[in-house]
Amino acid sequence: MGNTKRHIKPWEELTIADDYMFKLVMGHPHICKRLIEKILKIRIKHLTYLEDEKTLKARYDGKGIRLDVYVEGDNTIYEIEMQVRDYGDKEMAYRARYYQAMIDVEALPAGTRHYNKLKRSYIIFICPFDMFDKKRHMYTFRSICIQDKSIELDDGSAKIFLCAGGTMDDVSPDIKAFLDYIKGLPVKDDFVSEIDEYIREVKTNKEERVSYMTFEMKMQEAREEGREEGREEMAINMALDMLRDNKPVEEISKYTKLPPERIQELPNDI
In terms of domains, do 185 and 229 share one? Predict the structure, then answer.
């Protein structure tokens, strides 16, 4: 088998469409606030980052799924994700559902049974690709009654997909400029210029560069460990099948590459 290690993208080549850089950019309160305001066409007095430490670096701990850009403003929670990979419409829908559950559990005070204490929330997925095959730049989902679509279940939540792969004239010029910027197209827009300038500034920060390389190497190691665990699990399953067929330990070891003592430790009540 060849080398399966993933190539680490050079720090200098990162763009807003790269998950790591997107998180750094959204860590700038003014930029994050302006983006939310432009997407939702609202005004926000103040944003507060809800992670324990006031930095997005704390989210790169590799322990399960973490919400990326998790902020609160005007008693409303905003969760923003850059979806680098196109997992398919169904997977993305379930991912949004899972994130909603995480937000609600996090936001509800411990021990309370008053669900009206839940804050309003928006999950915003920014996608460098098209979704739903409808060529829209923006899809907003709320709970609507199937039998009477004039009735909305006002549960205080909404899910928005912003798609750079859209082609319709369905968003404001500044959002269109932002999505074009994600695609790497040349754009003349004040907000995009502010983002681009910030990225160029961040790239000159040696500490951020080291943080990025450290994170990528840790992720590489985690992926390698995951592959090793997967290979061992397959070998154990094969060994169990061969034990069921009363194959000798020496033969099992030959085909599974497991040590004989490891095979002997496997359950005998099979």
Answer: no
8 A C-beta contact, residue 145 and residue 153:
yes
- Residue 7 forms part of a structural domain: no
- pLDDT of 61 above 60: no
**Residues contacting residue 48 through CB under 8 Å, at least 6 positions apart:** 71, 72, 73
Q: What is the pLDDT of residue 228?
A: 67
For the beta sheet containing 157-163, the strands, ordered from the edge strand earlier in sequence to the opposite edge, are 48-49, 69-73, 76-82, 120-127, 157-163, 138-141
Task: Answer yes or no: is 115 within a domain.
Answer: yes
8 part of a folded domain: no
* Per-residue pLDDT band at 92 (split at 50, 70, 90): very high
Long-range CB contacts (within 8 A, 24+) of 178-182: 178/35, 178/38, 179/137, 181/16, 182/15, 182/16, 182/17, 182/126, 182/128
User: Are residues 145 and 240 located together in one domain of the fold?
Assistant: no
Residue 150's domain comprises 14-204
Mean pLDDT of 24-35: 94
Strand-pairing partners, residue 139, are: 161
Cβ-contact 190, 20 below 8 angstroms: no
Its pTM stands at 0.75
Average pLDDT over residues 162-188: 94
> Do 144 and 225 belong to one domain?
no
CB atoms within 10 A of CB 60: 17
Whether pLDDT at 65 is above 50:
no
Q: Structurally, how many domains does the chain consist of?
A: 2
